[in-house]
Amino acid sequence: MFNSKSHLDPVDWDQIRSISNRMVNDILNHLATIETQAVWKNANATTETAFQGALPSPSRQLDDVHESFLNHILPYSIGNAHPGFLGWVHGGGTVVGMLADMLASGLNANLGGRDHIPIAVEQQVVAWMRELFEYPESASGLFVTGSSMANAIGVMVARTKALGVDVRKTGMQGVKQRLTAYTSTAAHRCVSQALEMTGIGSDYLRLIPTNSEHQIRLDALQQAIDQDRRDGHLPFCIIGTSGTVDTGAIDDLKSLSEIAKREGIWFHVDGACGALGRLSKRFAPLLDGIQYSDSIALDFHKWAQVPYDAGFILVRDSVVHKATFASPAAYLRREQRGMAAGDPWPCDYGPDLSRSFKALKVWFTFQVYGADRIGQMMDHTTDLAHELARRITKESELELLAPVVTNIVCFRYRCDNSNETNAEIVIRLQESGIVAPSSTTINGTVAIRAAFFNHRTTEREVNLLIEETLRHGRDLAGKQ
Ligand SMILES: *Cc1c(COP(=O)(O)O)cnc(C)c1O
User: Fold this and answer.
1) Which end of the chain is less congested by CB atoms within 10 angstroms, N or C?
2) What average pLDDT does the segment 412-430 reach?
């Protein structure tokens, strides 16, 4: 089928049409019947060895390779598309996003820059995010892999704001004052990594304790800033979290914005989990204050269900954003006309030059479902989390370990040896393939953590989680 010597296109396009119909059908069938399958299962040895071959030199038929996909890849993904997947913070994906991604691959656009409409599509999504977060027209935005990268960019731009663009040349070598940043102990570990990548060092990220709601303590934050100023340091960035990874807690963003403003410090929000909750009428008030931030990291691939990966950074001050990354180069010369015209060039706003057309699957998602419907889907997942919390408080053998703000529930099976038992319950649940939470530790106690980020999850999975937890808990505790 691909035996032309001069190019890699099919020789017989009708034949490829029939195989591609089958490929699309197979993945649609998989999604249409996903609840009848296991959330996750371990691959057997045959499958493991299928990925240990040498670089293939003879050619194989496309349908034969697709057969390998069906047998050895499809059944063994982590299972986040499955309604019973309740672990970590994973979106479920949609058919719409999948098809859009296929079109984007076919187009094979490079979104680094230049004059073409795919850039306008990305800028359309940027404009939507400006609207959603009440940012000014002049704000800039960029698709990146995920919030890990988006948070790093936020911190890098904050560093430019604090030290000026010369820091790009001198690095931290010439900087006499120590820069200090602030976030809570509940922040995602990628915030520490961001400080490491900027050369500031994670020792200079002050991890501020949290209150009983798992929000950053404002009094402790103020004290830490004051202490750093007394010590001659330069406080430069506060990182608030809207939706912590352990419990879904949302920092008091309004108060953080006020502290940042008073102190003249950059205010960045890690909104990976929850920022897009602005799409939900019910949830939006909890995020009040996010509109006063200087930058926001968020993930379309989590709560908004866009297929991986689709992270995003929004920056209020596009001038300092661009000044952090733009570099002249002969081969990136801009013209007034022709293909090398166009503005902006996304490569000026982040470390990537070649960039995929992630914006298309987001554009399709918002066009097809509409923003309200996505907000309602978020409400639905939040309802399920609250329903689970209600069920837990009614079961004497179970205990809720953190307040449920949005869509994350942390609880345990009450017993002696609680930590070991609950860790084992989670592993058994995952291995059962029926319903799969993850675990975390809340104030030293191992928690079963159920995160409702999948639009396919229903009350059925809530029931299964309760029943199966009780069953394994009783078994492990030696009760009937
Ligand atoms: C998922 C998550 C991140 C990391 O985002 P990626 O998209 O996985 O890179 C950062 N912060 C929080 C709160 C998260 O939930």
Assistant:
1) C
2) 98
Strands (E) located in 16-104: 85-86
Q: Identify the CA nearest to 453 among candidates 245, 252, 196.
A: 245
Beta bridge partners of 180: 235
Q: How far is the CA of 299 from the centre of ligand 1 (A)?
A: 7
Q: Check if 245 has its Cβ closer than 6 Å to any atom of ligand 1.
A: yes
Give the position, in ligand 1's atom list, of the atom nearest the Cα of 311: 7
DSSP 70: I
Q: Which residues pair with 144 in a beta bridge?
A: 311
User: Which residue has the CA at smallest separation from atom 7 of ligand 1?
Assistant: 146
Q: What is the pLDDT of residues 239-256, one digit of tens each?
A: 999 999 999 999 999 999
pLDDT at 28 over 90: yes
Mean pLDDT throughout 161-173? 95
Which of 116, 24, 80, 147 shows the shortest CA–CA distance to 357? Answer: 116
Burial (Cβ within 10 Å: 0-12, 13-18, ≥19) of residue 104: buried
SS3 73: helix
For residue 383, which amino acid is it?
D
